[in-house]
Amino acid sequence: MAQPSQTTDGLESVPALLQRNATRFGDKPAYREKEYGIWQCWTWAETEKEIEALALGLINLGVNEGDFIAIIGRNRPYFYWSMVAAQSVGAVPVPLYQDSAADEMAYVMDHCGARFAIVEDQEQVDKLIEVQEDLHQLEHIIYIDPRGLRKYDHRKLHRFIDINEQGRAAYYELIADLKARREKLTYDSICVMLYTSGTTGKPKGVVLSNRNIIESSKSSSAFDHLTREEEVLAYLPMAWVGDFIFSIGQAYWCGFCVNCPESPETMQTDLREIGPTYYFAPPRVFETQLTNVMIRMEDASRFKKWLFDTFMAHARKVGPALLDGKPVGALDRLKYALGNIFIYGPLKDTLGLGRVRVGYTAGEAIGPEIFEFYRSLGINLKQLYGQTEASVFITLQPDGEVRSDTVGVPAPGVEIRISDTGEVFYRSAGTFECYYKNPKSTADTKDAEGWVATGDAGFFDKDNGHLRIIDRAKDVGKMADGRLFAPKYVENKLKFYPNILEAVVFGNGRDACTAFINIDLAAVGNWAERNNIGYASYQELAGHPRVLDTIQAHVEEVNRSLAFDPMLSHCQVHRFLVLHKELDADDGEMTRTRKVRRRIVEGKYEDLLTALYDGSKEIFTRTEVTYEDGRKGHISATLQIRDATVVPIERARVAAE
C-alpha cells in the first residue's frame, strides 16, 4: 500500500509539533490541572520549557535512544510531559494502567525491557519494589508525589522535581545533544508503545510510529473541524490509545488545551467547571451518568418527575431530528425550546456537557436507548469504531448521518473490506508497525499488503453505506438450530436499565440463551434505601427477592423488544441469575478497560452455567476473590435461578403486522 503524502511541513514528530505550538501560539493554554481546588495553567511556551528541562534531566540520568520508559499514574500534565520528553530524547514511552496489579506491571515492563519508570506516588513505587527481583533491567524510578517516600532507599529513586532541576542546571552541557536527538526523529520513529487489554491472553505491545499518530490525528481533526479553541478533559487511562490520541495526538496537532481533573472522585465536578467542547467517554461512563440522572428523578417531587418525563418524551421524538438539521414543525420546536429552558439545558450543565460540540463514544457498543437519550438532549454524541492497532480511527459518523445501529463510514484515509466469513479488515496510515517481540502475532493480524484483521464481525448497510458491527467475531456463534448468536447486542439492551451494571449472555451451541447479571450497587442501593430495605453487602442486596423481581422484569422487557427483531428474536433470555459479586479486573474477569473476559467468566463459573441449563432453581457456589490489598479470599452464596417469560416469535410477528 502506498504511503500517504507527507504534507506536514516537516512536522514529523510530536516534539516537532510542540516546538511549532510554542512558537506560533505560546501564550495559549496547553494544560490545566486542578490542585487543592484551584486550576493551575501552563501555556504552550511554558509547557515546552517544562518538557525541555525534563528531557535534559533524562539525558543526565542516562536515558539512551531506544530505551523504554514506563509511565504509571493518573492523568496529570507531568505524565503527558514525560511521554513527550521521552520521545524528545529518542526513547519510547510505555504508559501502563495505574490500577494494574504488581505482577501485571511486571509482565509489561519485563516484556519491553524498561530501564526507567516515571510514577505518581508511593503506591506505584511499592508495586515496583514488590516485583523488582523480576525486573533486573529496571535502573531508576522517578516519582512525582513525595509523600511517604522520604525514608526509602534513594539510590534508584528520584524526585521528579529534582530531575527537572538537574536538567535545567545541565542546559548548556546537554542542549546540543537534545537538539540532535530531536532532529533525528522522523515519521518512521516510534512514537509510543501501548499494550492491548488482553481479553484473550497476555497483553501485546502495539508499536505506533509518528506517522501512525500524526496522520490519524490530522485526518480525524479535519473530519470534525477541530481547532485550537477546543477544551478536552483528560480522565481516561493514559495506557489506552484513545487518551493518547485525544490528549497528545490531536491536542498537539490542533494546539488545544488538555484539562486534568484533581482526582477520579472530583471528575464530575471538574467536568462541569471546564465544560469541554470535545468530549469522549466509553459507554460505561454514559451509562453511569444516565443511572445517576434516573436515581435523582426517583427522589424528585411528583411535579418535577412529571415535568421531566413529559419533556423527555418530546425530546426523544424531535431532539435527534433537530440535531441533524431535519425539518421539525413549529409547535414541536417551541415545545423543545421550552424543554431546553426547564429540563435539557440544566441537565446538560449538570452533566458537564452543556458546551460539547463534538462527543464520541467507543470501546464497545452503546445501548441504542442510551445513545438516543443523549442525542435527544441536543448533545452531538456520535460513535466511532477503532482499535489500538489502528491508532484509534477505523470509522467515524459524519454530522447529520448519526445512527445508533451503525458506527459510521470509513475514516479519512481508511480502507475497509469484509471477508467471506464476515470479519472486518482495514488498512490506513494509522496501521500499527508491529507487535513488539511478537512477529507471529503481527503476521497473523496484518498481512503483507497492510490489511489488518479486526477480529470483529460486521457488514455494510446497503441503504447508507455505514458499517454495522455485530459482535466480536470469536463471540458470534450459532444456536443449536443454526441461527445467529450475538451476545453483545442482547447485553447492551440489558445494560440500558440503571439497575443492571453488567450482563454476560450465553447460548452458543445451545437451545436457548441464558445470562449472568451484575446489579448496579449505586442504583439498587438507592432504591433499597427509599424502600426501607436494609442490606449489609452487595451479595445480600443482589439476592433480595424484590431485587430479583425487578431484574426479571427488565429481562422480560428486553425479551419483548427482541421478539420484534427478525435477526435476533431467538436470542431472548430464557433463564438468568444475579451474580453474588461484581465482575472485577483484579479477579481476571474483566480487562483494565472494563471489557468482560467472556471465556474466563464461562470457565470460572462453570457450575453456575451448568445450573442455568439443567433446570436447577438454585445453586450453592464458592468463589475466590482478590481484596484491594492483594490478599485472596473466598465468598460463598446460594444463588436463585429465575425463569424469564419468552415471547413466541409468531405472536410478535402477528402483533407487528
Model description:
The chain has a 5-stranded parallel beta sheet, sandwiched between helices. The chain has 3 domains: 14-227 and 234-263, Rossmann fold, CATH 3.40.50; 283-472, Rossmann fold, CATH 3.40.50; 477-656, 2-Layer Sandwich (GMP Synthetase, Chain A, domain 3). The longest helix is centred in the middle third of the chain and has 22 residues, at 302-323. With 657 residues, the protein is an alpha/beta fold.
Brief digest:
This protein has 657 residues and is α/β, with parallel strands linked by helices.
Instruction: Give the uncertain stretches in residue-range form.
Output: 1-6
Provide the CATH topology of the largest domain.
Answer: Rossmann fold
> Beta-sheet strand percentage?
15-25%
Largest sheet: 5 strands, parallel
Average of per-residue pLDDT values: 92
Span of the ends, CA to CA: 50 Å
**Helix-strand makeup class:** alpha/beta
The CATH superfamily label of the largest domain reads ANL, N-terminal domain
Helical element count?
22
Multimeric state:
single chain
- Radius of gyration from the alpha-carbon trace, in angstroms: 26 Å
Number of strands: 29
Shape: globular
Portion of residues within helices? 25-40%
CATH class of the largest domain reads: Alpha Beta
Strand arrangement, largest sheet?
A: 4-3-5-6-7
CATH architecture of the largest domain: 3-Layer(aba) Sandwich
What is the total domain count?
3
